[in-house]
Amino acid sequence: MKTISIDHLPRVEGNGGVFATIDGHVITEVKLVINEGPRLIERLTVGKTPEEDVSIAPRICAICSVSHKNAALRAMENALGVKVQPKITLLRELAHMGEFIESHSLHVYYLALPDYVGFPNAIAMASKFPFEVKIALEMKQFGNAIMKNLNGRMIHGENMVIGGFGSFPTREDLVWIKNRAIQFMPFVFRTVELFCGLDYPTVPESDTLYACCEPGNGQYGFWGEEIILSTGEKVARDDYKSLTNEFLVSHSYCKRSHYKGNPYSVGALARVNVLGERLQGESAKMYKKYFSPRWKKNPLFHNAAQALEILYCFEKVPELVDEILAIPENPPVVPYTTKTGKGTGLVEAPRGLLIHHYEVKDGLVSDVDIITPTAQNAEDIERYCYLAAQKLLDEGKEDAIRDRMDLVVRAFDPCISCSVHMAEVKRAPSDDWKKKLAELQPAGPAFIGIGKEGRSDDRAGLDLAAGMKEAGMENVYLETEIEEDHSLEGLAGRPLIFLDIVNMGEPAGKIAMLPLQHVFWNAVLSHRLLPAVSNRLTYDQIKNAYILGIQPESIEEGGRLSNSVRAAVEKILEEITN
Amino acid sequence: MPKDKLKIGIYELTGCAGDALLIVDCEEELVNIFTAASIEAFLMAKSDNRHGELDVALVEGSVSTEKEKEELLDIRKRARVVVAIGGCACVGGPQAAFLDKKEWEKNLKKVYGNIEFSHSRPLQSKPIDAYIKVDCYLPGCPIGKAQFLSTFARMVNGNPPELFRFPVCVECKWHENDCLLNKDILCLGPLTLAGCGSVCPNFNVPCFGCWGPTEEANRTSEYYLLREKGFDTEVIKNRMANYSGTRITEFFEQFRKEKR
C-alpha cells in the first residue's frame, strides 16, 4: 500500500502530480499540479449556523477530520466567547493524539518505508517485514479506535461539539486506551530507531523556514494561541495572515503561501525543528540521540520527525487519560448567547499548521478562511523537487530524478494519492522558448541585453538588445544602462528577460528560455554582471525573471560572432519583433 | 464463487477521500478484499494500477472539473457495473449545495478571483449520475464499514447489493435512544438514509443528514414540525440542503409551488 493524505479547502488530494521539465542540462520548470476540483467549502458554510459549520468544514479532509474539527471548534468558540472546561480540552487533545497515531503510522510504515527498503508497496514489503507491517497496522487501528471512541466515528465523527461533548467515554474505555498505549511502547521505540536511523539521501538539502503552533508554557504540543517560526519570531493567532499571505497559481486549485516573500515548511519536521528541545521523557532522549543539523535542511527527515512524534503521542496518551480520570464530573455543553463575533483557531494537523477563521453575524457564519498545511507546503515541495532534480541532472543521474522527486513529495506527506505516482519528467521540445515567450508577452516583459563586445559570441546579448531597439521596441536595455542608473525598481511587476549566452552543454546556436533562479545555481555564465544585477532583484522579481539564452560556440578574446549564434540571434529577433 | 475473480477498480474524484480511506481502514479485512477480487485500480492504496475492462467500478467524489468528467465517462465505458460510493458521488456532497449556477460562479470567483486555470476547467459540482448511468448507490459520509463489506461480499459472490432504504430513525429506535426531536433538537433522522447505525443520536448529537436523503422521506411534514418547534425557515432549509446535494432541488421547487 502506498498513499493517503489530505487537506485543503478549495481542495487538494486525490490526483495530482509533480512535473519537471528538462531543457538540455537545466531543469526549466517544476510544477506541483493538483487536479482535484474546487469545492468552495469556505463559501458553502457562509449563511449557515455555527453548528453546521463545524459539521461541514471538517469534510474538507477525511484523514485530518479531527484536526479540522478541533480547529473549527477552537475558532468558533473564540468567535462566540465560549470557554470550555479543562476536561473538554483534555478529551479533545486525546482525540487529536488518535489522529496523529493513525496518520503518522500509516504514512511512515505504509507510504514511506517501502521506498527505503526497496519494495513497490507495503503488501509486498510484508514478505520481508511481516512483524512491522502487522504491528503498524494495529497501531493505526489503535489511533482509529481512539477517534471512534471520543468522536463517534473514525472519519467525520460528530461527538465533539461547540462547548463540549455530546456524550463522554466511559472509565473502562479510557483505561483500555491507556493500557493499550502502554502495550505498544516496545514497538514504538523500534519505530523511532528504524526511521531515525534510515540512511536519508543528501539530495536535496537546503535551508528553509519552519513554522508551527506555539503551544505555550515551554511545552511541545499540537495547538496554541500563537505561531512560532524557526527564526524565533512569533505571530499572534489573529495575525495569521501576515504569515500565510495566500496567493494563487494557475496550475492548481490549491492556494499557496509565502512568508516575507519566501516559502516555508510546516509539519512534523517543522515542529521538531522548532520545538524539539522541549520534548520530555523518552522522546527527549531519542531526540538527543538522533537529531542533527541535517534535519534543518533536508525534507526527507519528515519521516524521522513523524516517528519521533509517534513516541511523543504514545507517552502523552496515558498522561492525558490519567488527567481526564482525575476529573470525575462530565461538564455539560456550554451554551452560548453571543450572536456576533470573529475568531481564529490554530492547530497542528499531522501534516502541519492548520488555521480556521470565522466571522459570525446575527447567529450565522458570515466569513470563512481556512488555510491547510499542504497549501503552505506547496511552494517548498516544488523548490525541493527542483533542487533534487537539478542536482541529479548535474551528476548525470537523470534516471534517478523521478524516484527522488517522488521521495521528496511523499516525505511532506501531502494530501494525496498523488504521492504514489506523482513524478513525471519530460523533455522540453526544441522550440519551447517560443511558447514561453508568448506566455510572457501579455505581462509586458523588459529585455536586458548582456555581454561583451570583442569576445566572440559573448556579444550576442548586446546584438539582440540593439536589434530590438532598432525595431522600435520599448523596455529594452543594455547592461551598461542598467548598471548606471540602478533603476531595476522601476521594472517591478514586469517579467525580466535577460538576453545572454549560456553554456548549456548543447550544440552551438541552441536557444532556451531558462528561469533565472534555476540558472543561478547551474549554468556557467560568462559574466560578472548577472550576479550583481540579481542581488538588486527582489525574490518576486527573481521568480519572474528569465534568461533567453543561446549556446555559444566560443567566447575567445578578439573572435567574431559565430555563424550558428548569428543565426540564433536572427531567429529570436524575428520571433520577438513580429 | 466464480472461477475468475471479479475485476474491481476504485476511483476518486473531488471529495475528502474519506470513502477510499474507509476502505483502507478496513484493516483486518483489507487482505481479504485484495484476495477475493482483483483490485485493478486503487490510487490511494497501490501504485501498479491498470486501466482496462472492469466488472465493477467504485467511484467516490463529485464531478468538479472537465477532466474528471472525461475520466468518469471513460470509467463507465470500461465497467460493467458502476457503484457510486459516498455522499459526493451519490448526491454531489456538500460542494453541490450551490444549486444555482450563478451563485456557484459568484462563489468560485470569491475564492479564486479571476485566475484562469491552466490545468483543468472547473465545473459546478454534480453527482456522478449527472453524467453517466449508475447501477448502485452506496451512501454515507463516509460510507459505513458494515454496509461496504456486505455490499462488496455480495458483489464478489455475484449477488445484487442489499441496502437500507429506511431512515436513520429506524436504527435509532434499535439503539433505544430517546428521540431528540421530542427534546426540541433539530434532528434530520426522519429524512436521512440509514446505514450509519444512528451514530450521532447514539452520542446524544442530532443527525446532520450526512448520509443523504431517503427516497420516501416526508420532508414537508418534517419542515412544518420544525417550524412549529420555532426553528427559522432558512435554518431548516439549509440543514436539509447541506448534505442532500442536487437531490433536494425538486423538493424545494415543489415546496415553493405548494406555498403559493
* Quaternary organisation: heterodimer
Radius of gyration of chain B: 19 Å
In the CATH hierarchy, what is the superfamily of the largest domain in chain A?
Cytochrome-c3 Hydrogenase, chain B
CATH second-level architecture of the largest domain in chain B: 3-Layer(aba) Sandwich
Q: What separation lies between the terminal Cα atoms of chain A? A: 54 Å
CATH structural class of the largest domain in chain A: Mainly Alpha
Q: In what order do the strands lie side by side in the largest sheet of chain A?
A: 14-13-15-17-16
Q: How is the main sheet of chain B built?
A: 5 strands, parallel
What would the CATH topology of the largest domain in chain B be?
Rossmann fold
Structural class of chain B: alpha/beta
Assign a percent range to the helix content of chain A.
Answer: 40-55%
Total helix count of chain A?
20
- In spatial order, strands of the major sheet of chain B run 2-1-3-5-7
Low-confidence stretches of chain B: none
Overall mean pLDDT of chain B stands at 88
Beta-strand content estimate of chain A: 15-25%
Number of strands of chain A: 17
Q: What is the helix tally of chain B?
A: 11
